[in-house]
Amino acid sequence: MSQSLIIVTGLIYAVIAVDQYIKGGTGTSIMFLGYALANIGVYLQAK
C-alpha cells in the first residue's frame, strides 16, 4: 500500500514540476523535480 502511495505522490510532484516549468516558474519547477526524484529513493527504501 505505501509503495503505491509513494509512486502516486512522485507522479503528482512530476506533473507539478512540468506545469510550473510551462508557466515560467523555473525555480519552483526544479524544487518539485527534486521532490519527485527524492520519492524514487523513498520508494526503493520502502521496497
Name the helix and strand elements from N-terminus to C-terminus, one letter apiece: HH
What structural class do helix, strand and pairing data support? mainly alpha
Cα distance spanning the termini: 11 Å
**What spatial form do the alpha-carbon principal axes imply?**
elongated
Total beta strands: 0
Using the CA coordinates, give the radius of gyration: 11 Å
Mean pLDDT: 95
Helix content: over 70%
Main beta sheet strand tally, sense and closure: none
Outline the low-pLDDT stretches.
Answer: none
Into which percentage range does the β-strand content fall?
under 5%
Count, helices:
2
**How many domains in all?**
1
Can you describe what's shown?
By secondary structure, the chain is mainly α. It has one domain. The chain has helices at 2-22, 26-46. Helix 1 (2-22) runs antiparallel to helix 2.
